Amino acid sequence: MEASAGLVAGSHNRNELVVIHGHEEPKPLKDLSGQVCEICGDEIGLTVDGDLFVACNECGFPVCRPCYEYERREGSQLCPQCRTRYKRLKGSPRVEGDEDEEDVDDIEHEFNIDDEQNKNKNIAEAMLHGKMSYGRGPEDDENAQYPPVIAGVRSRPVSGEFPISSYAHGDQMLASSLHKRVHPYPVSEPGSARWDEKKEGAWKERMDDWKMQQGNLGPDQADDSADPDMAMVDEARQPLSRKVPIASSKINPYRMVIVARLFILAIFLRYRILNPVHDAIGLWLTSIICEIWFAFSWILDQFPKWFPIDRETYLDRLSLRYEREGEPNMLSPVDIFVSTVDPMKEPPLVTANTVLSILAMDYPVDKISCYISDDGASMLTFEALSETAEFARKWVPFCKKFQIEPRAPEMYFSSKMDYLKDKVQPTFVKERRAMKREYEEFKVRINALVAKAMKVPQEGWIMQDGTPWPGNNTKDHPGMIQVFLGQSGGLDADGNELPRLVYVSREKRPGFQHHKKAGAMNALVRVSGVLTNAPFMLNLDCDHYLNNSKAAREAMCFLMDPQIGRKVCYVQFPQRFDGIDRNDRYANRNTVFFDINMKGLDGIQGPVYVGTGCVFRRQALYGYEPPKGPKRPKMVSCDCCPCFGRRKKLQKYAKHGVKGDVANTQGFDDDKELLMSQMNFEKKFGQSAIFVTSTLMVEGGVPPSSSPAALLKEAIHVISCGYEDKTEWGSELGWIYGSITEDILTGFKMHCRGWRSIYCMPKRPAFKGSAPINLSDRLNQVLRWALGSVEIFFSRHSPVWYGYKGGKLKWLERFAYVNTTVYPFTSIPLLAYCTLPAICLLTGKFIMPEISTFASLFFIALFLSIFTTGILELRWSGVSIEEWWRNEQFWVIGGVSAHLFAVVQGLLKILAGIDTNFTVTSKASDDEDFGELYAFKWTTLLIPPTTILIINLVGVVAGISDAINNGSQSWGPLFGKLFFAFWVIVHLYPFLKGLMGKQNRTPTIVVIWSVLLASIFSLLWVRIDPFVMKTKGPNVTQCGINC
């Protein structure tokens, strides 16, 4: 497909389309059917008895005999996948360590292995072409061809031109293969250790020479340990990542304190329940209910942090394994999604910087495709992206030539750093100055577009060729696709290829439900599946740029790792932010969540999806379950107890895998063959033959049967507003609908299917974004998150009752998901608890009776356990105590404001059907540093915390004045009430500071203490004023009240 060939707009339902003509010579497709060695890429071969050679009887990892014998003789003698020691097979020489084994050479004859791999070849073609109807006309059916794709078979690599490939099928459409038996050994996948079928060069020659000499070399005759090439090969075979457990000296005391705190909390609640306050039963009962809820909430939050872990990645091993010199690059392609809606709130310059950082990332250019979703159909976004594509021709080669970081020009040129550090090229300074001038001119052009867009013409926007802009009506417009950069016409200033850049605006019509961001992301999934179909997808918000150019490689260390990658649905990166004040007054960095909670979840089943900075496996988004990979049964005799247990387990597994006509199906293809046998593709994925075919390509790639014009026509079709009708999109596939926080639901569904996720925290943050730093915007952002959690709690996907079937979601992971949906409800007891101190001070009553010395030990132990838990948590996580304290403060501020309103709005939506629309948080920044921090914007969210703050301040003054009037005996009970009230005031202090705005002269804390001290001093002066006559009344204790 040629870049800049014109905007493609159309509506499938209205039969409107602007077709782009362009073709390319067909490219041959190489047949890769058959088992190959995962180490050297050669055929595995057969044993002397004609059976398939099996090196490891535990996991069946495909290895040829030469590599097996070489590993036994020169290597670690361990299977690369399950790390089990290789046993001596028939015909293999003995090596050191074989003496402990039984002298049996026929181990491989214990199981019957039938190689039926070749039956997989044309299963998708036979089903799609022969048995499905997609509602197309006869002219489409005549030219329709579908490639022989299925799990484990590599499709044509993606190029920027979307070339046509004519693959001769012959008559090999085997309908019987729909009921085939799947080979019990794992097939090759993009994340496996196999390097490719095209291996040739030095490695191939060395292996061939070694095989020729194998017969003459004894076990001790050849020594290649000094060969640097062999050392490199050994390094490439090592894992691409590893877990780094928290030191036991840090985590064990932490766990012990958690258990102790749980025990102390139980004793404390027991004492509180058994010792009521009879003269203030209402206050006592309210406090008891609040404390029980706080204890329940603490358990949900604390125990998912029981197994925190860190991770390390090895980028050098990734390059050694998939980027060998002189051979095709085998890194998996990545489709990158950037979503934007309103260019007035999400400035085009911010989006442009995100796109430029993506195009300049350290990854093979032919493996990157960037898709921009413009859900507002704005001509400003379209023209800004056109300018960005032109500037990228100069910016991308500059970044790669001098290896600069970060690769977003605004952040690079504005950052206060030594830009000459580690730079040795003499032309760097000159080229940097020239590039900075180019970027400033680029900013001026973008600013001119923004200024032009401020005043919309009465007749609507007109494109440069005189055509009306199709998106003039943002609620009624056709789908639009524009390829800005690609292979043809997508070259940089040095003549090198640039990554693909595609503009997408899905069709919108009145009367259709479009599902906001979740619907836009699903449209991008389908468009990318038709045009490029990369096996992995990176999702970014428009204000989150790549701060680390190797971020995609970091994710590939997990997703392409042959040990753990096959069951990983996504790799989540932490969110980091620019433009936040040093004190982080409103906890915008959210480090407690990203550095503590997410690490804890990574040790269970993986972190939750947080909406951006996440690399997905496409097959997981398509609703498939993770590959099962059944283990081989243990070698036991037929007449012992374990044999019966094994048989029962095998029967249970077979029962799980049998449905309808696929009684013999096992392994990775279970889900797909079940769909094939039941003919459910249309209901699941929609009526698009090309897209459905792409869903079967586990390793990605474009179907080689369609021309670029056909691909574009299909892409317009899959973004039509009625495409998702009567399909599983939004309910089982893609981003899940039903909540404005679609990210939580999407990750939750994947974990319920048995997938696990990974939390990746590279030393240099992978992505950085902008956050709202003034109080009003921050509270509105938190309101939207909390409202989404309330919607999930009342939906059918609530983690309280959903996902128990199959037992694939671990219990601690479920605790975390339940906590993400119930935390807004904590606002109700929190509001009551923050009001109690003022009531106690104003009425003279308290929520607790007088306590004995022994009972006071419960309170002391509880407070000590709370502080100790926090300190030990900070110790193993590395979070500073200031960040922890800011998080505690904003927990109270958000709890009594945004969370409370979210509960009310959620109940109104569920019970009364009153829907609430959220607004996009502004990403613009003030010219002055942290200027937005002091911007005061009144909102109803400020009313509850303001009320709580005022009544507690009044209560403190009233309590102290009452104690002064009643004498010294009143000060003892007052201290408990004052401590309670000051706890509330200190937590609301950042709110008070934001409420009062910027204080250039007098710090806010001085104002607060001035008011308090002035009030107390005035009351005290009135009490001791010598000019006032003191009157002494009767002694009530002696005379009685009526004396």
UniProtKB/TrEMBL annotation:
Cofactor names: Zn(2+); Mn(2+)
Catalyzed chemical reaction(s): [(1->4)-beta-D-glucosyl](n) + UDP-alpha-D-glucose = [(1->4)-beta-D-glucosyl](n+1) + UDP + H(+)
Membrane-topology annotation of the record: Multi-pass membrane protein
Binding annotation for UDP-alpha-D-glucose: S339, K345, E346, D375, K516
Record-annotated RING-type domain positions: 37-83
Keyword Nucleus: no
InterPro entries (alphabetical): Cellulose_synth (IPR005150), CES_Znf_RING (IPR027934), Nucleotide-diphossugar_trans (IPR029044), Znf_RING (IPR001841), Znf_RING/FYVE/PHD (IPR013083)
EC number(s) per entry: 2.4.1.12
Record pathway: Glycan metabolism; plant cellulose biosynthesis
GO cellular component: plasma membrane
One MF term in the entry's GO annotations: cellulose synthase (UDP-forming) activity
Active site per the UniProt annotation: D375, D743
Details of cofactor binding: Binds 2 Zn(2+) ions per subunit.
Subcellular location, record wording: Cell membrane
Keyword check for Manganese: yes
Binding of Mn(2+), residues: K517, D541
Source domain of life: Eukaryota
Gene3D superfamilies for this protein: Spore Coat Polysaccharide Biosynthesis Protein SpsA, Chain A, Zinc/RING finger domain, C3HC4 (zinc finger)
Cited PROSITE patterns: ZF_RING_2
Single biological process term from Gene Ontology: cell wall organization
Transmembrane segments: 251-269, 281-300, 822-842, 854-872, 892-912, 933-954, 974-992, 1004-1024
Pfam families: Cellulose_synt (PF03552), zf-UDP (PF14569)
Similarity remark: Belongs to the glycosyltransferase 2 family. Plant cellulose synthase subfamily.
PANTHER family per the UniProt record, alphabetical: X-BOX TRANSCRIPTION FACTOR-RELATED
Designated name of the protein: Cellulose synthase
